[in-house]
Design goal:
homodimer, 124 residues, alpha+beta, Arc Repressor Mutant, subunit A, globular, binds manganese (II) ion, binds zinc ion, DNA-binding, FUR (chains A, B), WH-like_DNA-bd_sf (chains A, B), DNA-binding transcription factor activity (chains A, B), transcription cis-regulatory region binding (chains A, B), WH_DNA-bd_sf (chains A, B)
Chain lengths: 124, 124
DNA sequence: AATCTATTGCGACAGTGTTGCATTAATGAA
DNA sequence: TTCATTAATGCAACACTGTCGCAATAGATT
């Protein structure tokens, strides 16, 4: 299954790369110049997740948000970081803060989905 | 707005109290002996949240899960604890582990939604 | 140009959570 | 007890999200 380059994929990535935030499919399509079908954008985003170009966060509104896997302060932010959702400006951003946790004996953690909710710097 | 006691409310609470897990509205209704309307159960659960009888977790499947606010090892588990979702037995439980985080200057955290995903003790 | 097949658009679907509104029933006063 | 008040419910309807099947389109390669 070799990947192909398409205008729609580049448009999706361009939006995600320009904003420094995690965005919902809804918000991504609104920001896109090219029009694309909802289902297509979902497929593109899921493909990006498989290829680890973006990562997915499920916020406490139940929606999926996607963000590019970027470097921050010259350190690659891995999957296991906190996210922050501002209830006022309705944005979600990746925090440079790593999630530290401990689980009971013999539990196996494969994934994290940690979202802090509140007011961001600008809104508080 | 004074609260009234009803059989449905007690049934919902009975289910949540008997299981030690966080449950979705779906799962709660399946376990209930009394039948009740979907919408009613949601209203009951949201009321319980307001009254802080239960707390709500949004898992990475985008669904809302509800759990009674119980004591664990004689220590009250507050709202800011991790949750664990087992992908095999499809349960969500409250972990006794507190979420430790740090946010950038002047961010205000009002809520947490932190879910660890993987295999629980029995399933791993 | 011809071929292969990844990608897309469209329609359809299941599931979740919410709301409006008429009806029922819990509660406290008479 | 009876009555009045209104919280709680059942039902229908709705918006929204994420997914999938399938035929059509269009990258990539020879
Ligand atoms: Mn992130
Ligand atoms: Mn909990
Ligand atoms: Zn903000
Ligand atoms: Zn399990």
């Amino acid at each position: 299954m070799k990947r192909r380059n398409t205008a729609t994929q580049e448009a999706v990535l361009a939006v995600l790369a320009s904003k420094r935030r995690a965005m919902s499919q809804d918000a991504i399509i609104k920001q896109m110049t090219v029009d694309a079908d909802r289902a297509t954008v979902y497929r593109i985003l899921n493909r990006f997740c498989e290829d680890e170009i973006v990562h997915k966060i499920v916020a406490d509104d139940g929606k999926q948000y996607f963000a590019v896997c970027v470097k921050c302060d010259d350190v690659i932010i891995p999957g296991n970081h906190f996210h922050f959702r501002c209830t006022k400006c309705e944005t979600i951003e990746c925090l440079p803060s790593i999630v530290e946790y401990s689980v009971p004996e013999s539990y196996k953690v494969e994934n994290l989905n940690c979202v802090l909710v509140g007011l961001c710097k600008e809104c508080s």
